[in-house]
Design brief:
Layout lengths: L2 H32 L6 H18 L7 H31 L8 H22 L4 E2 L8 E4 L2 E4 H23 L1 H7 L1 H5 L6 H29 L1 E2 L3 H16 L4 H22 L4 H15 L16
Helix pairs in contact: 1-5, 1-8, 1-9, 1-10, 2-3, 2-4, 2-8, 2-9, 3-8, 5-6, 5-8, 9-10, 9-11, 10-11
Amino acid sequence: MNLVSFLQQCLIGLTSGGFLGLIAVGYTLVYGTVGLIHFAHGDVVMLGGCLAVTALALAGPLPLEPLAGWLLVMVVAIGCGLFCGCLNVAIDRVVYRPLRQAPPLAPLVSAVGVSFILMNIGLLWIGPTDQAFPEVLPTGDRLAAGVWLPTGDLLVLAIVLPALGGLAVLLRKTGFGRSLRSVAAVARAASRTSGPERFITGTFFLGGFLGGLASVAAGIHATTINYQLGYQTGLYALTAAVLGGIGSVPGAIVGGLLVGLVRAVSVAIVGPRWAVAAVFLVLIVVLAFRPQGLFGRPAAAGRSL
């Protein structure tokens, strides 16, 4: 692999790693607040992609002029974010909230069950075959230092980068964000008062909103969507969250970028068949030397974002 090819694969990896990081943040937020691996999160993202395909199909003839196309993508991404955020909140209230004090296995099995239910909803929504993600802008590539930069990747970056910037501001500059970074205190609360529950609801909404944005980015990047997107992309995102340190927001983002890079470079070097194995090999090696992940804290230190 020459230098230009390597840089091209790195660009692909960073682009996909960006939206994987957004999805991974959803896993890590929920774990940080209630100590639950929200297995259905990937399928919530998949339904966001289904909504995006439906909305773009109703938008009229595509592709559009650049300005109209960019605006349409942003509006659809925000709409999918709101949809996934509300869906996440509904899942928490109906399924997880009644099990707050149950043994850990009960909410875990319930999360797996919700994942299968959402997967079947996606199957009914878009069917069993891959659906092409509509091309909002004319296909075109831009050349930078010998590396091709597809228009679709620019759209993905236009979704991911503002989302990451907004998340950073939220965590650093708002009362909700400061509470989120000290979430271990909420997780230790013995009583289920309205304050902690409102906080947990906000966390589920935020994770779902970021996942909804990521669903549009993932559809643009992959150019197709199917009802198993939640399992495939969710597995990578959960791996990214564990690699970065489950419970750490910066770790989830860095983990997403690392998973994207490893997967893209592995596809070029050893082929797509071995890309998944390469990702998990990196995960095993990292956890062997740092069990809490790259940015995670030891278990004795408690959960912290």
